[in-house]
Design brief:
alpha+beta, 8 strands, 204 residues, four-stranded mixed β-sheet, 27% strand
Length: 204
């Protein structure tokens, strides 16, 4: 690994956690990130809420158990408690990020933004879309030129591109993709809205 990467990775990890914490604030304020006037938003977090809060509950139970086991070692107990609480905050923050950062269709800018929490934000110019369709899929094999963003192990929308767009991974890796699969709670509504915007019609 090159020296520059040693600096970049901690920075990316710190930025990731700060974005999760910012998402918690947006969630409590009931605000949406990146949605301009005249744009349409399409959520995708509905199917993962129960799982994420179940995971957070397990973390809380584990924290209580560790508190009992470490009650005779107060210094260790305080460190573990802080780590456990912070883990719960990050888990809830991850769900909050999925809620406040939905997919965004901005007809005025001619862009469809496909997102997943704070990890993925792919901007697709509408003129590069060759087709968009509702396509429920539960299996996704990694392939060159394809980006799969399942939620709850499934995707429901497939976007095929006439020209590739660049996807930047969490650690800064650039990859050209021609097919993007994602999940939307209202997959049919997203497909219809994108097709209307591509045809120059107003998006409800």
């Amino acid at each position: 690994m090159k020296g520059g990467s040693l600096v970049t990775v901690p920075f990316l990890l710190l930025r990731h956690e700060l974005r999760l914490l910012a998402s918690l604030w947006l969630w409590t304020a009931r605000r949406t990130h990146g949605a301009a006037d005249g744009s349409a938003v399409f959520g995708y977090a509905r199917g993962q809420g129960a799982m994420m809060f179940g995971f957070a509950f397990v973390c809380v139970v584990e924290s209580v158990g560790m508190s009992v086991l470490l009650r005779d070692w107060p210094a260790v107990h305080h460190v573990v408690l802080v780590l456990d609480v912070y883990t719960v905050v990050l888990v809830v923050g991850l769900h909050a990020a999925s809620v406040v950062r939905p997919h965004v269709l901005d007809p005025a800018a001619g862009v469809l933004r496909i997102r997943r929490a704070v990890h993925v934000d792919v901007r697709i110019p509408l003129e590069r879309i060759s087709s968009v369709r509702r396509e429920p899929r539960a299996t996704h094999e990694p392939r060159d030129g394809e980006l799969n963003l399942p939620v709850g192990a499934q995707t429901s929308v497939t976007v095929e591109l006439a020209e590739p767009v660049t996807h930047v991974s969490f650690l800064g890796r650039h990859r050209e993709v021609r097919v993007v699969r994602c999940h939307a709670d209202d997959a049919g509504g997203l497909v219809r809205a994108v097709n209307r915007a591509r045809e120059g019609h107003a998006v409800p």
